[in-house]
Write a structure and sequence with these properties.
Length: 281
C-alpha cells in the first residue's frame, strides 16, 4: 500500500531537519520511507516482548511517586571520562540519582547494540564525474526514544518515562497530547520530527506523578542521554536547567558508562573520534 504523499513529506522533512548540518542533502525514496516505518513497527512489537516485565512492573506501581525509586540509585560514574575532564566537569549531572536506571539502561543498551538504521545518500566527486552512493546511518537516540514511547503507549500513556516531550521555550509549558499524559506529536508515524517551532525537548523526562501531565512542576528529572561519539555540551544542559528552573532536575546519562551493570576496562576510559558534539539521532 503506497504511503500518502503528505505523510511521506512530513517524515522526509523531519529527517532533513535533523540532518541539515551535513554537507550533503539527505533524501529518502518512498520505498526507503516504507522500510523505515516497517522497522519502527517491528521494534514496537519487540518492546512488548523484551520489556514485558518492565511494563508489568510500571503498571503495578502506577500510584507510587517516582522519587521513591530514586533513593536506591547510585548515580552515574563520574570517575569515567570519555575525553578530557568530562567526568569532573559534569559530575553533578552524572551523579544525579534517578529512578528506573535499570529499565533505562536496558533500553539504551538495546538501542546502542541494535539501532534502527536509515539510508543516507551522498555524492562523491571523482575525476570527471560525481558518483552517488548510499550509506546507513544508525539512529541510536531515536531507537531509544521509540522504545520509551512504546512502553508509554502500552501503559495507556501513564509510564513515568516520557520520550522527547516538547516544551515551549518561552512559557516553559509542556506541549500536551491526548490524553494529557501523552506528549503531543506533529507526525503520528515518526513521532519526534518535526518539532513544534520554538520548542525544547529533553531526551527523556521522568515524571513524579504518572497520572498527571509532564508539566515542569511534575518533572522529577530531565535526562540528557549521550551515546558514544556524542559529546556532552554545557549549553545544552544549561538550557534544560533554565527550562526546569533548577539544575537539580537535570541529569546526564552516558551510554554505556552510566548504565546499570557497566564494567570498565582499565583505569580510565577515553573515547576518541568526532569532536563536533553532533549526533546521529
Amino acid at each position: 500500500m503506497p504511503i500518502p504523499a503528505a505523510v511521506g513529506a512530513a517524515i522526509v522533512w523531519g529527517y532533513r531537519a535533523y540532518r541539515g548540518y551535513t554537507a550533503y542533502e539527505a533524501t529518502m525514496t518512498a520505498k526507503e520511507t516504507a522500510e523505515m516505518l516497517a522497522e519502527i513497527a517491528k521494534r514496537k512489537e519487540q518492546v512488548k516482548k523484551v520489556l514485558q516485565s518492565t511494563i508489568d512492573s510500571f503498571a503495578k506501581e502506577i500510584d507510587v511517586k517516582s522519587s521513591t525509586f530514586a533513593k536506591a540509585d547510585n548515580g552515574g560514574r563520574s570517575t569515567i571520562s570519555r575525553r578530557g575532564g568530562e567526568g569532573s566537569t559534569f559530575k553533578e549531572y552524572i551523579e544525579r540519582k534517578i529512578p528506573f536506571r535499570p529499565a533505562i539502561s536496558i533500553t539504551c543498551n538495546w538501542a546502542l547494540n541494535s539501532p534502527i538504521t536509515v539510508p543516507r545518500r551522498i555524492r562523491k566527486k571523482v575525476p570527471g564525474d560525481v558518483v552517488e552512493t548510499t550509506i546507513d546511518i544508525a539512529l541510536k537516540q531515536t531507537t531509544a526514544s521509540l522504545i520509551f514511547e512504546a512502553i508509554d503507549g502500552a501503559l495507556d500513556w501513564k509510564s513515568p518515562l516520557k520520550a522527547e516531550p516538547n516544551y515551549d521555550r518561552a512559557s516553559r509549558k509542556a506541549i500536551l497530547g491526548e490524553p494529557v499524559t501523552r506528549p503531543r506529536r506533529i507526525s503520528e508515524i515518526f513521532p519526534f520530527w518535526p518539532r513544534p517551532k520554538g520548542s525544547l525537548a529533553p531526551d527523556l523526562v521522568i515524571v513524579e506523578y504518572r497520572q498527571q501531565p509532564f508539566e515542569v512542576p511534575n518533572v522529577f528529572a530531565a535526562v540528557e542521554i549521550k551515546f558514544p561519539g556524542d559529546w556532552v555540551k554545557e549549553d545544552q544542559l544549561r538550557g534544560y536547567a533554565v527550562l526546569m528552573k533548577t539544575d537539580n532536575k537535570v541529569a546526564l546519562l552516558r551510554v554505556p558508562e552510566d548504565c546499570t551493570g557497566y564494567k570498565q576496562d582499565g583505569a580510565s576510559r577515553t573515547e576518541s573520534g568526532r569532536s563536533s558534539g553532533r549526533k546521529h539521532r
